Structure formats: C-alpha cells, structure tokens
Amino acid sequence: MSDLQLFPTKIRNKNEFSQEIPYGVEMINAEKMWDLGYKGKGVVIAVLDTGCQTNHPDLKNRIIGGRNFTSDHNGDPRNYSDNHFHGTHVAGTIAAEMNGHGVAGVAPEANLLILKVIRSNGTSSYDSLIRGIHYAINWRGPGKERVRVISMSLGGPVHDPRLQSAVRRAVANNILVVCAAGNLGDKISKSFDHTYPGFYPEVVCVGAMTEDRKPALFTNTNDEIDLVAPGVNILSTYTGTRYAELSGTSMATPHVAGAAALLIQGYEEKLNRKLTEKEIYNLLINNTVKMDFDRESIGAGLLDVSRGIKSKR
Fold first, then answer.
1. Known catalytic residue at 226
2. Has this prediction a pTM greater than 0.85?
3. Which member of 85, 87, 237, 245 has the greatest number of CB atoms within 10 A?
4. Does 49 participate in catalysis according to the annotation?
5. Average pLDDT over residues 184-197
6. Residue 291 falls inside a structural domain
7. Among candidate residues 19, 147, 39, the one with its CA nearest the CA of residue 95
C-alpha cells in the first residue's frame, strides 16, 4: 500500500521577531473571537503529524501530551519530538500562544495533543495513522479532558477501509476530524483531485486560498471540499526555535482546526452544554463567506470564524 504524504509546497525561513499576527489568522477574523474572550481555552486538539518541537517558546505551554507511532527515535513511544518541521508549523497555526514574540495561532489558549504519525522523511504508513486516530479517541488528559478536534494535514492515494472506520469512530465519539484536501490541483475546476482521508465524507475537507482570496493553484478540487482557508505563505513556528512561511492545504487545515476550538469554547459557554460533532461542523460551515470562484467544486466558502457569535451575552 502506498505511503501517506505531507502537503507543503514552499518554505521561506524567517528569524525570530516581536509577536506578529499572521495574515491567515487575521483573514478568518479570529481576533474578533479573542476580543469576546474566546481563545480556545479548555479545548484539546490532536495534531497527527511529524511531531512537534516541544520546547518551542510559542508552543511548550500549549502541549498537554503526546505519543510517537513511528519507528523514528528508535521507536520510543514517549518521544514525539519533530525531526522534520511540518508538525511544528501546523501546531503553531493552531495554537501558538500570545507571549509577546514570535507568532500567535488561531486558538492561542487551546491545548495540543501531539501524535507523531509521520516519519522524518515526510511519509507515514496507514497503520501509524490509524493507530494515532484510535489513540486520540481513547485519550484522557490529567483533568479527564478529551480530544474534541483531530487535525490531519496529510493524505494518500488509496482508500483503506480501516482508515475510514477509524474516522467514523472518531466522529461517533463527537470528535471533529479536519483534513487537508491535497495539493494535486491541475487548475481545472471540474477535475476530480482527491486523497484520503480528506475525501471521506465524514471529515471536514479543507482547500487553500491565497492572501488575495483566490484559490491556490495547487489546491485539490472535488465535491467533498467543505470550505477553504488561507494556505499560501503562512507564517508559523518552525523547528530550531525558528519561524517560517509554508504553503499548502496542510497550512489551510490548522486554521480550521483552531477555528473549531474557538467556536466550541464560545458556543458551549453560551449554551452551557457540550456540542455534538454535527453541531460543530454546522457552526464551521455557517461561519464562512461565499466567494465568487472561477474554479468550481472547491467548497462552500472562505472561513470567517466571527460571523456567528456576536457577544458573550
């Protein structure tokens, strides 16, 4: 069976700097939710990726736990450090904290469960990914926390019934599963580009937009894409306590995972109850802006997380 692979397309390194709100965080209007007091506090997001630089100053206080499902680090399940770079970048877009330097993520007070399912060469076995999903479902935190969102910026060409079964089990346990659409786009709107697990109907499938609100040239197009988010030249955390710009549907996906954390916190505080997976999904789709795309089959609209909740009252 073919390996799963990552979806970044471009890297531009930057050195450390005073705190910056990346344009993608601004584009989806996350700051409007922050102003209402919703920064993802108490929401756990499982990031299934290459691991994470656990001592990165923007991330170290956001990591609640983790596990390694690969042969990297001599197969030590306790060592989920990032020997690539991709997972650290994704984690920063989700939840880099507001500490006065570096970058801020979409949900800067959310907690991250780091599950290393991708090897240092950027590939993953289906078995590692499946075991990682089941671990996220079964995981309980020190305060009995549970995973509410799974973020996966990866994909493979083959449908695996075991993988779809794992995704369905997550959804049945009220976990929102957010996946990258993939970077196989051929610039033809009606073409049928897809990878798994992003193409499964049970997941939230995310396409990529440019800063000027146009579909990224690389983004997949198919009728399972639910929404689009910023995915070109996305500034975030990087290994070696650095920062970098990457492009890909990999970078769009964590914007949606972080936005889900903001909506979960906001609406659960307002309603005084837990949201179901279906309710979280509907909130995401309702918090989009319709776009006039030349390319069809690329989603319901651009994520705008501030459209629903207007006040804490």
1. no
2. yes
3. 87
4. yes
5. 64
6. yes
7. 39
